[in-house]
Design goal:
Elements (H helix, E strand, L loop, with lengths): L5 H7 L5 E3 L2 E7 L3 H18 L4 E4 L4 E5 L9 H16 L3 E2 L6 E8 L4 H9 L3 E2 L2 E2 L8 E6 L9 E6 L5 H10 L3 E4 L6 E5 L5 E5 L6
Parallel strand pairs: 6-9, 10-13
Antiparallel strand pairs: 1-2, 2-4, 2-5, 3-4, 6-10, 7-8, 8-9, 11-12, 12-13
Protein name: Putative pterin-4-alpha-carbinolamine dehydratase
Family: Belongs to the pterin-4-alpha-carbinolamine dehydratase family.
Pfam families: Glyoxalase_6 (PF18029), Pterin_4a (PF01329)
């Protein structure tokens, strides 16, 4: 299967799906647990028939769906086809497909010392993948190591919040209204750097302008 670019994915994805941090994602607004459970079973049957299996996270009023082709390590046409099938199943069940507000959180450690990876690998028990440590279950945030200088004072940790491009401007506006500042948009639309009133930084990240 061919790895698709972020632009290809967003242009071809069904309505209500977003591309965040290497995966196609949506939220099915079931309204109650029984409806969500029934939809899990329906999606499961379709996934078995397609021999391609999404990650499903069932909660009381919604069902989160994550699609990627693990053998390729990216989103492919296989994921887009299954996303379309899942949207059709949700529509037949009277369930809304709506990814509004979906985010993925990573934690970045700014460090001049790459040997820090070994310490955090030992403590967290995550597999080491390049400059990242990833939770095998996909439940906890990925930890990655960003090379930085050693000048003091400096912020060691910062969150990277992955959002759909359509949500960047509203989030920036709300952050500024809450007393934050826009530190830099030099790397936009790949990411924007914001800071809270005390100077603690956070990056808003999107798929745009990335390899």
């Amino acid at each position: 299967m061919t790895k698709l670019s972020g632009r290809e994915i967003t242009e071809r994805a069904p309505q209500g799906w977003v591309y965040l941090l290497g995966a196609l994602r949506t939220r099915l607004r079931t309204g109650d647990f029984a409806s969500g459970l029934a939809l899990v079973n329906t999606i499961g049957a379709a996934a078995e028939a397609a021999d391609h299996h999404p990650d499903l996270d069932l909660r009381y009023t919604y069902l989160d769906v994550v699609l990627s082709s693990h053998d390729v390590g990216a989103v492919t046409g296989r994921d887009l086809r299954l996303a379309a099938t899942i949207s059709e199943l949700a529509d037949s069940a009277g369930v809304t497909v709506d990814a509004t507000g979906l985010t993925v959180l990573e934690m970045a450690l700014d460090t001049p010392s790459p040997e820090r990876v070994g310490f955090w690998e030992a403590v967290l028990g995550y597999p080491h993948d390049g400059d990242e440590l990833k939770d095998p279950a996909g439940k906890l945030p990925t930890l990655w190591f960003q090379r930085s200088g050693d000048e003091e004072p400096r912020q060691r940790w910062h969150p990277d919040l992955w959002v759909d491009p359509s949500e960047v401007r509203p989030r920036i506006d709300r952050a500024l209204a809450a007393g934050g500042t826009l530190v830099s948009d030099a790397e936009a639309p790949s990411f924007w750097v914001l800071a809270d009133p005390e100077g603690n930084k956070v990056c808003l990240c999107t798929w745009q302008d990335r390899g």
